[in-house]
Design goal:
It is built from five helices and two strands, in the order ααββααα. A hairpin with a 2-residue loop joins strand 1 and strand 2. The structure holds iron/sulfur cluster (SF4) (2 copies). The site of one iron/sulfur cluster has 12 residues, from helix 2. The site of one iron/sulfur cluster has 10 residues, from helix 1 and helix 4.
Length: 113
């Protein structure tokens, strides 16, 4: 499976967990958005646009239903779950996380050669 698809699938599992938080998605932080902006630009040549449904938000990509950035454009966010969230995650979450980490390490290694 390709990285893009792996990130999409892992986010399908974590998004509903974070949506139930009070308030929802409260781990989101401007630093995470900044890292996504840089990753999307540097790795994929994609400029992310402001998509928040709050005109004055410090989180440019977060809406009431979650983040609008493609999961592979925000890898650190896509791979993050708090310990409580991890407890609620199914076994498939861990299998996907392992596969993604292995592929990212492989890609990182090939960049350094
Ligand atoms: S990672 Fe944990 S604390 Fe953060 S939004 Fe998700 S469930 Fe809530
Ligand atoms: S998940 Fe999206 S909104 Fe949340 S910190 Fe990451 S990029 Fe920003």
């Amino acid at each position: 499976m390709e990285l893009v698809e792996l990130y999409r699938k892992i986010t399908e599992l974590s998004q509903p967990i974070c949506a139930k938080c009070v308030p929802p998605f409260h781990c989101c932080h401007p630093v995470g958005c900044g890292l996504a902006t840089v990753w999307a630009r540097r790795v994929y040549g994609t400029e992310l646009e402001y998509t928040s449904d709050n005109a004055i938000s410090t989180l440019p990509y977060l809406t009431k239903t979650g983040c609008t950035v493609a999961p592979h454009h925000r890898p650190l966010c896509s791979l993050w779950l708090c310990p409580e969230g991890e407890m609620a995650a199914p076994a498939e979450y861990w299998e996907l996380k392992k596969e993604i980490m292995e592929k990212e390490i492989e890609l990182g290694d090939s960049c350094r050669k």
